[in-house]
Protein 1
Amino acid sequence: DCIDSELLDLVFASLKHTNRFVRETGYMVCCALVSIHPRDEQTENKGHIWSEGKRFADVLERGLSDNWSQVRMAACCATRAFLLGIPAGGRDEFFPQILPPLCLNRYYIAEGVRIHCQTTWRMLFSVSGVKAVEQHLDSIVPFYIKQSEADNHAVREAACACIAELATKVGSDPVRLHVPALIQGLLICFEDDSWPVRDAACAACGNFVAVFAEECRAYIDRLMPLFYSNLEDNIPSVRQGAAVAISNIVRAYSSPLSNDVIAKLSELLDAVNSQQDDSSLYSDLSKKPAVFGVAMADDPTHTNQVMYSCGSLAPKMGRGGKAPGAGGCSASHHFKRPSQPWERTDGAVRLFMELSDVQGTKAELIKMIPKLSSATQKRNFEHHKHMLETIFKCLPMIFRRLSKNKVKPYINDFFDALYYGLKSDMGLLKAASVEYLQSLSLLLGPNILKGRIEMTNYDMMLYVQDAFPETVGM
């Protein structure tokens, strides 16, 4: 009886307050209100709580998209209480509004929000979640595209992950009509300042090309330079994601595109030959003393700006390569370090591994194995051990996928680098070298491997015994 329109108006007004603590508390109050008055306990839907269901849906939709993770979390709790307080047959009227942000938050960067929304999703749909998405694609797709243009980089990343999900988990026929709009949104995110957004956009485009090859054919000329840019990125996971995406494109379109990819691969494998001795990170930045200052109280760049969670890089990371002048805990910033030659070769090695599983490219890849072995000899720069680690991680898969008889003549060419890796003081390189040694034992047989090592570099036998004696049958 105490819950009337006046109280609800006050609570809903608090959800628009500029102070995020007020908004967070407001959503916690909403959660309490719908929890103590579930809809199925009110005869004929009477009472102020459920007569204001449309307004509740409006504020929950807004709260699930708040820039502050704490507010999102409170809105997630209120959303769960609201939807579970309604009989299953009565929830459909609110799904067009609430389902899109709830679906997106399953991939949100804040772990509490992400796990809570995933649990809510299972509680609502059990095993029928895909069907629910298909039924509400007309509201979900525009929301995803809008969120891919959000100022918050974490939201853009989640939107790209959700778009990728549409290609891999939802039926192709319902999504097919939305492919052009979704690809356009991903193309913008592909040039994002934030590398996780670029990585997610790259993976999503690769998934769409694999599933909707004909619909995506018109965008290949725009996509390929972006894929190659990611393949040369200074972030290892971005390079790996680009390698997977490019292999999907080669599977989908084959030649003549595969010929262009092979040519690019050959070029990048040779890139390390131009690597300078100094490969230190951020070597291109100024070494001069920085200038610091204090923001003035009346500085317009710090007044009436969108606020983000503390620690968020959202104000720094511009969407589509354009840094917004946003406020918050950080100043505007636009920065991406150019990749170095060894990083481009590292990306090529990853692409080599992914292409080794694609029919029609294996003959050309076998011819380029000497380029791989040549890259292992380039050790004049500081970060050569990172590149060697990647090579020894990829070689086992490459040799397994290519013909055993075709790769056997090249195995000895890597023994010098293998010896170097086994005695390295870098733990990750040493572990990758041991794993490569194990793969050779399985490929050739332990006794044949032992004979090859003894003939090529007998000093390596000591490290082989210490690192993995059972591999060579000793």
Protein 2
Amino acid sequence: PNFALTLNNLGVIYTSLGKLHEAYKYCVRAVQANPAYAEAYNNLGVMFRDEGDIKQAIASYDRSLEADVTSKNAGQNRLLA
């Protein structure tokens, strides 16, 4: 089973509910389950950006792009950070 996808999806759900602390935990668990899962790193970047931590956001977007150089989400978010 793809636990990373499930964990990331839970992170997205908690983000949409405004529960960023819970969302962060699930996205971190997603990248622990699959260190090459680019979308989870992108989602972490979005959370860091929303919290005002631009340096961490950029680092997360960069990690996402390392995992998948074709990630449009991470590329766009990186440019906007």
